[in-house]
Inverse folding.
């Protein structure tokens, strides 16, 4: 198994944490689905904070020669503003940047609770 993807996921989790992403977790999704290997979830406290974290992700992916396959600031839900949830799809790694309100509402850690958390803490309430 190639550990590069896991190393990248852990480095990205640490990067977000180092840049004040709140309650950052990296979840190992490999045994639960076929479409991604890792989720990274971080809470943001403002649109400026969200944009800054996206910039750090972009810089990291450029440095590591990784492709951003898709970036969405508004998942398919008309009730969400673009400032509440940003999804960055790197293929094997999917990053969710969410406000505390949206993170609590969707509870991705609980939804995917069978996934081992390899960085961060399980209880993010």
């Amino acid at each position: 198994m190639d550990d590069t993807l896991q190393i990248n996921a852990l480095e990205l989790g640490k990067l977000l944490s180092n840049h004040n992403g709140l309650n950052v977790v990296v979840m190992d999704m490999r045994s639960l689905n076929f479409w991604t290997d890792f989720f990274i979830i971080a809470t943001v406290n403002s649109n400026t904070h969200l944009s800054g974290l996206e910039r750090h992700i972009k810089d990291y992916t450029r440095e590591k020669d990784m492709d951003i396959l898709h970036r969405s600031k508004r998942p398919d839900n008309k009730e969400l503003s673009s400032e509440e949830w940003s999804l960055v799809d790197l293929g094997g790694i999917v990053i969710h940047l969410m406000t505390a309100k949206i993170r609590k509402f969707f509870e991705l850690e609980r939804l995917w609770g069978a996934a081992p958390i390899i960085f961060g803490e399980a209880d993010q309430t």
Remarks:
- Residues 4-117 form a domain with the Beta Polymerase; domain 2 fold (CATH 3.30.460.10).
- The chain has one domain: 4-117.
